[in-house]
Amino acid sequence: MRALREIGFAKALRFGWSTLALGVYGWLGVPQLRAPFLRLLGASVGPDAIVHGTRFFNAYRLGFPGLTVGRCAFIGDDCLLDLADRITLDEHATLAERVVVLTHTNVGYADHPLQRHFPASSAPVRFGRGCFVGANATVLPGVEVGECAVIAAGAVVTSDVAPWHVVGGVPARVLRVLDADAGAR
């Protein structure tokens, strides 16, 4: 009952509806069915985009209208996407398996002792054209990943990644700068 009092009846109804929709989504076994279903839920999914068995949460907040998956973008199996705020994948952006994308932070109920130090917040995450995010990487709220940037497997990305840069580690740091002109050949 406490959660219902804190989020309100309207959000509770949206939570129930989104849980049902996510159950249907999980039942759809192939990407060719998942993309049109996500469009029905309000997401923007471009042609030739592939969305594997992705898990969504906080769909009752901003929800599927906040999800944009560009042309030829790829989201691998077991990715976890937080729909509390906007997530955008530009064309050809790739999320490998088990990538976690967080768009919000909340330590608990309004009276949680840490709320005054870490108040609830949200911020969109954007993946630029042609970027690649390796398996098991975590991208935190507000991060923008530049064009053709690479995030190494297992990295924790806490700040923006410049175009054509390779980052890795916990927290992620620059490992290499790619030659953008070499990619044009």
Helix percentage range: 10-25%
Instruction: State the total count of DSSP E strands.
Output: 19
CATH topology, by name, is: UDP N-Acetylglucosamine Acyltransferase, domain 1
Which structural class should the secondary elements be placed in?
alpha/beta
* CATH homologous superfamily designation: Hexapeptide repeat proteins
Give me the Rg, rounded: 17 Å
| Beta-strand content bin | 25-35%
User: How many domains, in number, for the residues?
Assistant: 1
Task: Describe the secondary-structure layout.
Blueprint: H1 2-7, H2 9-27, H3 31-40, E1 44-45, E2 50-51, E3 55-57, E4 67-69, E5 74-75, E6 80-82, E7 87-89, E8 94-95, E9 100-101, E10 104-105, E11 121-122, E12 125-127, E13 132-133, E14 138-139, E15 144-145, E16 150-151, E17 156-157, E18 165-168, E19 173-177
Parallel strand pairs: 1-4, 2-5, 3-6, 4-7, 5-8, 6-9, 7-12, 8-13, 9-14, 12-15, 13-16, 14-17, 16-18
Antiparallel strand pairs: 10-11, 18-19
Question: Which terms would index this structure?
Answer:
UDP N-Acetylglucosamine Acyltransferase, domain 1, 185 residues, seven-stranded mixed sheet, alpha/beta, globular, 3 helices
Please give a structural write-up.
- The termini are far apart.
- The protein has three helices and 19 strands.
- It has helices at 2-7, 9-27, 31-40, and strands at 44-45, 50-51, 55-57, 67-69, 74-75, 80-82, 87-89, 94-95, 100-101, 104-105, 121-122, 125-127, 132-133, 138-139, 144-145, 150-151, 156-157, 165-168, 173-177.
- It has one domain: 3 Solenoid (UDP N-Acetylglucosamine Acyltransferase, domain 1), CATH 2.160.10.10.
- The strands form four sheets. Strands 2-5-8-13-16-18-19 form a seven-stranded mixed beta sheet.
- The model has no long low-confidence stretch (mean pLDDT 92).
- A hairpin with a 4-residue loop joins β18 and β19 (173-177).
- It is α/β, with parallel strands linked by helices and 185 residues long.
